[in-house]
Design a protein that fits this description.
This protein is 42% helix and 26% strand. The chain is α+β, with helices and mostly antiparallel strands. A hairpin with a 4-residue loop joins strand 2 and strand 3.
Length: 106
């Protein structure tokens, strides 16, 4: 399992708002719900799954602004691919929360 942080940036739009692109991207992500887990954040989308599938998903969501008529798109991708143990979105958050609880008990 890998975790990908992805941001799709449409360039040259008529408005500084991109929330409608984000909504369209999440409609595409729904088609992959049986293969990946995803989570919207205020600045990006986090996707969890097998790396080959994640690349397929990234390609599909990268196309969304083009399909809406945008002529240029920049996509930023960060990949966390840990091979020594299984990692998940929930597991990473639980680990940090556990450490915070330990610190608060001191």
């Amino acid at each position: 399992m890998a975790i990908v942080d992805v941001t799709i940036i449409p360039i040259g739009t008529n408005s500084p708002s991109v929330s409608h692109f984000v909504a369209d991207i999440h409609e595409v992500l729904k088609k992959y719900e049986d293969k990946v887990k995803y989570q919207l954040t205020p600045m990006s989308t986090i996707i969890e799954g097998e790396l080959p599938v994640l690349f397929e998903v990234i390609q599909a969501i990268h196309e969304v602004p083009f399909e809406a008529g945008v002529q240029r798109v920049a996509t930023n991708i960060r990949i966390d691919d840990r091979r020594d143990k299984k990692t998940t979105l929930d597991g990473k958050l639980a680990s940090v929360n556990e450490k915070l609880n330990e610190k608060n008990q001191l």
